[in-house]
Design goal:
single chain, alpha/beta, five-stranded parallel β-sheet
Length: about 160
Amino acid sequence: PRLRVIPYSYTVDESAMSGLRAAALALLGDDADVALHPTVTFGAESSVSQTLAGADPQVSLTVALFSLAATPENENHGAFLKALRAASPSARLAVLIDESGYRRRLGLQAGADARLEERRNAWRYFCRALELDTAFADLSAPDLPALERDLERVLAAPAASI
C-alpha cells in the first residue's frame, strides 16, 4: 500500500518526510510507503492532472498536504482540491494539514494556542464544505493515534483502483 502525498504551496523537509513515513505505516500497515509528488505551486492548481498522470495501483490513500500557516482560500486551495478530485475521482482523498511550521513560528507568544485553534477551525470549515476528511498533525512529531482517528472514515471507505 502506498500513501500518495501531493503538497500544495508547501516544501516537505526531512522532518516532515519522516512524519509522513510514520503516518503511512500507522495508517496503511507495516509494508506501506510514501509517494511524494512534486509540490503544486500557488497558482498552478490546474497542473494536478499532469501530476497524477498514470494510475498507480499501489496507492491506497491520496493526501493533499497543506501548511497550517496558510489561510484556506477557495480560489487557490479549493481549486487545487477540486482539480485533485477531478483528476482522480475514485481515489480515497483526504486533507492533511502540517502544523509544525506555524507552531514554530508562533512559539511561546501569548495567544498562540488560540491562534492555532482558530486556524484549525478555518481549515475544518473549509474542508467540510468540500466534503473532505481533514487531519492535523505536527509532522515533526506526529500524534499517530489522532491521525488514525481523524482519517478513520476515509480509510474505512472501499478502496477503488486509482
